[in-house]
């Protein structure tokens, strides 16, 4: 069984390389991977990715590519040279875009398709013009996109913990479910995440990695917060084994 800490992907959602480096030093032994997203990458570029790698940590490069296939291919070729574990592309547009991302990865980086952001609700989907049967059934929309990602050769998808069981059931244990929108038990959600689960629920439903940001970053003691979350993950994993 993997260590509970290995499930945690901590997003370095901070505006400077200095702040990111501090968090990498603080949390290196407590989380399995660091996520570099748009805010930090726009500010600090590939150098911060190289720094984190030089510290021996694994990286999820979350740039959520969304463009014509030729551009996505060329962007992913560059990402593949950064020695990162995962990189993201949006699933919402076309299979060609996903295939281009996989081609650009050259087998050096696991491409994850972003299905439906965990900040998006049914109302948001309906308002953006989706057919009622998809707007009213978020899992179906996620599954459509997951199937496209699987067919295109992606390593897995990003989805809510609420959809993880359906994804793993349909596409197999080897197809990764990476789940943001995680809030520890007892946390009241008052931010932009809508389709949320606790850490225990997410792993119980088969999630392979949990993206957990603000509950750790904004805690008085981030290291202690990460440890408490690992305890919740551990309990969820044990429960999953018992119910197998
Ligand atoms: O735990 P917290 O809500 O702070 O995590 C936010 C992070 O998760 C951000 O870095 C965001 O990009 C990422 N994320 C997300 N929903 C997705 C994919 C990634 O919230 N579907």
Walk me through the structure.
The chain is built from eleven helices and eight strands. The chain is α/β, with parallel strands linked by helices. It has a single domain, classed as Aldolase class I (TIM Barrel). It has an eight-stranded parallel barrel, surrounded by five helices. Helix 2 links the parallel strand 2 (33-36) and strand 3 (59-65). Helix 4 (95-105) packs across helix 7 and helix 7 (138-152) packs across helix 8 (161-171). It is globular and about 45 Å long. Residues 11, 13, 35, 37, 62, 114, 117-119, 158, 180, 193, 211-214 line the site of cytidine-5'-monophosphate (C5P).
- The residue ranges in which pLDDT falls below 50 over 5 or more consecutive positions are none
Backbone CA Rg: 17 Å
Number of helices: 11
| Helix share, percent | 40-55%
Number of extended strands: 8
How much of the sequence is in beta strands?
A: 5-15%
Give me the side-by-side strand order of the main sheet: 1-2-3-4-5-6-7-8
Report how far apart the termini are: 14 Å
Q: CATH H level: which superfamily?
A: Aldolase class I
Q: Give me the secondary-structure category.
A: alpha/beta
CATH architecture: Alpha-Beta Barrel
Report the average pLDDT across residues: 94
Biggest sheet descriptor: 8 strands, parallel, barrel
């Amino acid at each position: 069984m993997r260590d509970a800490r290995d499930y945690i992907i901590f997003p370095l959602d901070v505006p400077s390389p200095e702040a990111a480096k501090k968090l990498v030093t603080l949390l290196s032994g407590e989380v399995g991977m660091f996520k570099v997203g748009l805010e930090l990458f726009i500010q600090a570029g590939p150098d911060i990715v190289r720094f984190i790698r030089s510290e021996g940590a694994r990286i999820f490069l979350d740039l959520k590519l969304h463009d014509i296939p030729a551009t996505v291919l060329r962007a992913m070729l560059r990402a593949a040279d950064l020695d990162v574990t995962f990189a993201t592309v949006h699933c919402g547009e076309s299979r060609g875009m996903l295939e281009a991302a996989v081609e650009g990865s050259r087998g050096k980086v696991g491409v994850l398709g972003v299905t439906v952001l965990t900040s998006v609700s049914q109302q948001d989907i309906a308002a953006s013009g989706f057919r009622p049967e998809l707007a009213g059934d978020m899992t179906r929309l996620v599954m459509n996109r997951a199937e496209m990602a699987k067919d295109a050769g992606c390593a897995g998808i990003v989805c809510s913990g609420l959809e993880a069981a359906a994804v793993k059931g349909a596409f197999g244990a080897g197809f990764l479910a990476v789940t943001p929108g995680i809030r520890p038990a007892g946390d009241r959600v008052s931010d932009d995440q809508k389709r949320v689960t606790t850490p225990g629920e997410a792993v119980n439903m088969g999630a392979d990695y949990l993206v957990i940001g603000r509950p750790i970053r904004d805690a008085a003691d981030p290291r202690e917060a990460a440890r408490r979350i690992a305890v919740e993950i551990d309990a969820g994993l044990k429960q999953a084994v018992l119910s197998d």
